[in-house]
UniProtKB/TrEMBL annotation:
Residues 30-132 form the PTS EIIB type-3 domain. Keywords: Phosphoprotein, Phosphotransferase system, Sugar transport, Transferase, Transport. It comes from the Bacteria. The keyword Cell cycle does not apply. One of its GO terms (biological process) is phosphoenolpyruvate-dependent sugar phosphotransferase system. This is PTS system, Lactose/Cellobiose specific IIB subunit. The keyword Transport applies. InterPro entries: PTS_EIIB-like_sf, PTS_EIIB_3. One of its GO terms (molecular function) is protein-N(PI)-phosphohistidine-sugar phosphotransferase activity.
Length: 132
């Protein structure tokens, strides 16, 4: 099944009322301000682009961001947890904390280039309703 077909299946899932929440966790920012809430601004930009991509393709997916230090509480709300490349070594630890969640690491090149198309290819290949 090609990428476009998988996107269509995900879009169809919207009509079934199934919502998917993706949360991207990144390293805590050195500076905590009211604007960035301790999250790397680059990661926030990626989430914004992902939400625009989902809206454009009529996908019922919402992407949010959080700093890694809050994963224990905020990770509970996610259907899919994406880790930024610098957190790749913590993937197994996160899987142990959230065995019922889908955990993936964003490829360094896709993160660096804000390549939401490739990130959504990863999401559509995951095993959850609507991604067959």
């Amino acid at each position: 099944m090609n990428f476009k077909t998988k996107l269509n299946l995900m879009s169809d899932a919207k009509n079934e009322g199934s919502n998917r929440k993706v949360i991207i966790f990144s390293m805590d920012s050195i500076t905590l301000t009211p604007i960035n809430n301790g999250v790397n601004p680059y990661t926030t930009t990626l989430a914004t682009k992902m939400n625009m991509f989902a809206k454009k393709n009529k996908l019922n997916i919402f992407t949010d961001v959080s700093r890694f230090s809050k994963i224990d509480s905020i990770g509970l709300d996610a259907d899919i947890i994406l880790l930024t490349p610098e957190l790749s070594e913590l993937k197994n630890e996160v899987k142990d904390k959230f065995p019922d969640k889908i955990i993936e690491v964003i490829e360094k090149a896709d993160y660096g280039l804000l390549n939401v198309n490739n990130i959504f290819k990863i999401i559509t290949n995951l095993n959850y309703p609507g991604s067959k």
